[in-house]
C-alpha cells in the first residue's frame, strides 16, 4: 500500500506530517510542490482543488488536513502490524487519551497557537506574487504594515502559551502528556516553536531563565526526531505525473469502512450521491473541492473527485470543515 506525501520544504505543516511519519516509521514517497498556486500535480491531475499543503495519499484515498492525515495514518498503519504510534501509553500505566490528544492538537496547537507564528515571517521582503497568493488564501488582501505591527502582540501571546507548556512540564515529565514516547501532542506543539525559532526578532521568546523546562523539551523533541531521521533511509522523490498515475490506478478503502451515517447526513441536509463542495471553515474557504459524496461519518467526509489522471477518493475532516450541495456553494461565492 503506497503512501505519497505532497509537500514543500518551507511548509511547517508538512514538517508536522514528516514527523508523524517518522514516529510511525511508515515508508513513503514525496512530491515536492510549489509554495503557491498553481499546483497542477494536485488540481489538474487529481481534481482536488483544496489548496492547503500537505495532502497525503494512501493508495487511492487522498487525505486533507493534518488532523485527518494523522488519524488515518494511525488507523491504517497500526502498532499490531509493527508500526509506531502517535498515541503511546502513559508512562505510569494506562492507555493514551486519544480523543483529548486529537482535540488538543486541532483546537489549540493548530487553531490557536499556530496562527500567531506566521506574523513573524518577513512579509515586507516577500515578492508581490507571494503576497497576492496568500491574500487569496486568506480570503482578503494582506496588509503587510499591519502584519508587521502585530508582531509584538503575537510574541507576547506566544510567550503566554509557552508558559502553559512550562506549567505542563513542571512536574519533570519527559513528554507533554506524560507518555512513554512522544505523542501527537508533542509534534503538534513542537513544530510551531521549532519553525519560528530561527526567525529574526523572536530570540527573547526563547529565554532559558523564563522557560527552562520548555526549552529543554523543545530540544529533546528535536533530538529525538533527529535520531529517527538519521536511522531511516532518505524519502524518495517522485514526480506529480508518476504519483497521480499510481494513485488513480491503486485500490481504495471500501466505502463501508467510513460508512454513511444517515442521521448525520440528514442533520447536514446531505445524502449519499449528492454533488457537494467541501471546504475549510477558516482560511481557503473559497477553494472547495467538488465531488460526489460517497461516505460520511462523525469524523470525515469522503467525495469522489476526477482529474485528468482518473478517479480518486478525497477525505476531509468534519471538524472545522463544511460540505454543502455544490449548487448552494456556488451561489455563495
Q: How would you sum up this structure, described in words?
A:
- The protein is an alpha+beta fold and 333 residues long.
- Helices cover 42% and strands 16% of the residues.
- The protein is built from 13 helices and nine strands.
- It has helices spanning 12-24, 40-43, 66-76, 98-113, 128-138, 144-149, 151-168, 184-196, 212-231, 240-249, 255-258, 262-268, 326-332; strands spanning 3-7, 29-32, 55-58, 61-64, 275-280, 289-296, 300-307, 310-317, 321-325.
- It has a nine-stranded mixed sheet.
- A hairpin with a 2-residue loop joins β7 (300-307) and β8 (310-317).
- The longest helix has 20 residues, at 212-231.
- The protein is globular.
- The two termini are 38 Å apart.
Strand composition percent: 15-25%
> End-to-end span in angstroms?
38 Å
Mean pLDDT: 96
Low-confidence blocks of residues:
none
- The count of β-strands is 9
Figure out the total of helices: 13
From N to C, what is the helix and strand string? EHEHEEHHHHHHHHHHEEEEEH
Radius of gyration: 20 Å
Q: Biggest sheet, open or closed, and with what strands and sense?
A: 9 strands, mixed
Q: Please state the structural category.
A: alpha+beta
Judging from the principal axes of the Cα atoms, what is the shape?
A: globular
